[in-house]
Write a structure and sequence with these properties.
Layout lengths: L1 H16 L5 H14 L5 H25 L1 H7 L12 H19 L4 H20 L6 H18 L7 H22 L10 H6 L1 H9 L5 H19 L13 H6 L1 H9 L10 H12 L7
């Protein structure tokens, strides 16, 4: 019994390190860009998700390895600082996962492998400098932007104008979200301007959508309503102190992807994106999103 409890505890430590509650948002990015790129066989899509998952989890491992000094001051509950896992193990595991993730992209073609290499570089660069530069949210957004390109390049038709535009919309959303997340741990003050960036995806969708049918209007309403709910929980009325809401905005990334494909996704896949939002929220009970 003790052995089972110890295994369960260690498993949870790894899940927390990898921030697995955000994985549904990674899969959502892959699915949206994959569909915008023309789709393909589901086996190939599975390899894409595997590579993206390994890259994301590896990046999150390195995030904790780089942030030990910060976590000692502000986030003593993180696994390395709490003594639940060694920093050396996290370094090795993170590097191994990133390597395996990049190698997985080779099965998807040379273009996918090239974007995989750029994504890997951006992940490592972000983890290295993100606590030392105010431009870290842009680097974080670049990672998601490149993930869109990686997924689309692995699909049948590859990159298109729609992929580029909706990747840009996601980029803006992640920049805005990341500026909120930067002050979450330190209870700092954040201006309201990043909230404007969160609405860029819906603005782009209104302009770019080929037709504004009922499914489009469902997504065009759901995404901003979810953001407003998260933001209303994220600020005190007087001091604009971020208190919560970042986890909800992170879980809401699939709604951004839902907007991107609302006019082209098949009926059987239409509810996959809100389902991934629900899964992300459930997983947040197991492992914090930030």
């Amino acid at each position: 019994m003790r052995g089972i409890e110890a295994l369960a505890q260690q498993t949870r430590v790894l899940l927390v390190l990898g921030r697995i509650s955000n994985l549904p948002t990674v899969w959502s990015n892959c699915l949206a860009a994959w569909l915008l790129g023309g789709g393909g066989t589901w086996g190939r899509f599975g390899l894409l998700c595997l590579g993206a998952t390994l890259l994301y989890v590896g990046g999150m491992f390195l995030n904790d390895a780089f942030d030990v000094a910060f976590d000692r001051q502000y986030r003593a509950e993180r696994p390395i600082v709490a003594g639940q896992v060694s920093r050396r193990f996290v370094w090795i595991a993170g590097a191994l996962l990133l390597t395996l993730g990049w190698l997985a992209t080779f099965t998807l073609g040379t273009k996918a492998a090239a974007f995989g290499a750029l994504l890997l570089f951006c992940i490592v660069l972000y983890n290295w400098v993100h606590k030392r530069t105010s431009f870290a949210p842009i680097l974080m957004a670049c990672c998601r932007f490149l993930l869109y390109f990686l997924a689309a390049s692995a699909a049948q038709l590859g990159l298109s104008q729609a992929v580029v535009w909706f990747a840009l919309g996601l980029f803006c959303y992640i920049v805005g979200l990341s500026y909120f997340a930067r002050v979450e741990s330190t209870r700092g003050i954040v201006g309201r301007w990043p909230a404007v960036l969160l609405f860029v995806p819906v603005a782009l969708a209104l302009v770019l959508a080929a037709r504004h049918g009922s499914r489009f209007w469902i997504t065009a309403a759901a995404q901003p309503l979810w953001m407003c709910w998260c933001l209303s929980k994220g600020f005190s009325a007087a001091k604009r102190v971020l208190s919560s809401g970042v986890a909800g905005l992170l879980a809401g990334i699939p709604l951004v992807d839902w907007l991107a494909v609302s006019c082209c996704v098949s009926p059987e896949l239409f509810l996959v994106f809100p389902s991934l939002l629900v899964i992300a929220l459930i997983l947040q009970r197991v492992a914090p999103a930030t």
